Amino acid sequence: MFSRHLRSAALVASLLTLTGCGLFNTKPNVEEPPVVIEDTEEPITIDEPAVEEPPVMACEPVVIEKEAACPAPVACPTIISGAVTKEGDIAIIGRIEYVDVMSIDMRKKARIDTGAETTSIDASNIVEFERDGRKWVQFTVTDRSSDDMSEVKAPVVRTVRIKQHGVDNVRRQVVELDLRMGTLRETVEVTLADRERFDYPILIGRNFLRGRAVVDVSQKYMTLANGMDNTNEEEVEAPQEVIEQEAPAKQAQGQ
């Protein structure tokens, strides 16, 4: 019996030997952390294309432009009223003034017309003739207040053609006359015209006024000593005539 127990013990020992003593050496199954192997190689550097950054600009100051200064006023000629003027000054005249025709010493009423370029005078009995190879003209100027008539002879400067509605075109001569208005005196071109139907035998145009006078249309006879005229008159003027300048009068050879 003892030997039987001995055999059982030997069998158990054999089983234990085959199992590797797992029953006695069993350890708890603990998961260990993974082992991290550090990379000892140097990092690889990849050269990237250089990107040029814009330079840092300082903010420019904002300039607020000042308004441009007004230009200095241009010195204009002094304007004075009345007949007395000084050298370089400009006179103020009315829409109607008296004008002296110096060559015949005759004073006539004149209408001031800034829309007309050339001065004109009422002339009758116009006759052309030739003198020293030049074309001249003889005409009559009548004083309407006394019916006195004066003859004037002058060379023809040029001729103009007048267009009028319903009337055939007419040709007029242009001469130079010495005219005086108050203290304003000038030799200017004057067109010989038939102004019998007009109230004023002389029309003063821009060629006399330019640089000498300005017109105050609310006044009359400002070049007279008292600036007044006692005559009572109605101002009537026909529409402006259309004037076309023709070639200057032909002169003889050698002139």
TrEMBL record:
Pfam families: Zn_protease. It comes from the Bacteria. PROSITE patterns: PROKAR_LIPOPROTEIN. Residues 92-222 form the Retropepsin-like aspartic endopeptidase domain. Residues 229-255 are annotated as: Disordered. It comes from Halioxenophilus aromaticivorans. Residues 239-248 have a biased composition (Low complexity). This is RimK/LysX family protein. Transmembrane segments: none annotated.
